[in-house]
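Model it.
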Amino acid sequence: MYSIQNPVLVVVDMQNGFLGAKSSYVIPKVRDLVNEIRRREIPIVFTRFHNREGSPYETLIGWKRLRDNSETEITCELQPFIEVVIDKDFYSSFTEEFSHLAYANNWKTIILCGVATESCVMKTAVDAFEKGLVPIVVADACASHAGNEVHEAGLMILGRFIGKQQIKSTEELLETLSRTTTSTT
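Modeled.
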């Protein structure tokens, strides 16, 4: 059994370009989670994806979205909570800047919410796992812009990658935080 130690909440890519008809339902859940995590004085980091011209997303997948500000901006519902934003041009939140912050702050538990469950959230969770950190994915505060079926598939694969016990509802996470030492120093 593990305990949550020195946690950080990473709010993954809650950007206008990813939040549409199949994923925007998650905004209130993420906002409520961010509000509660902030109340508990746990650090929060937002990530923002940029699809650069000539990227593998363009050249290998043929995907050219998330280039202009209207798509890359973090949704207005979360703007009041933003203190730290990590810009990235690949799936994982483990950029050089984020990795430095994680090391400098001795973060041991990486709590994840946002979009997309099957790509950026998953890649960040697996990277945390492989770095010896404890990833926790907040299932009801994640979504996929490809729809619920893809979100659920992402959660199933995540359970195999990082352990089913690492996937929690918001309620389960908050109960665990209440029972666990959460030193943020």
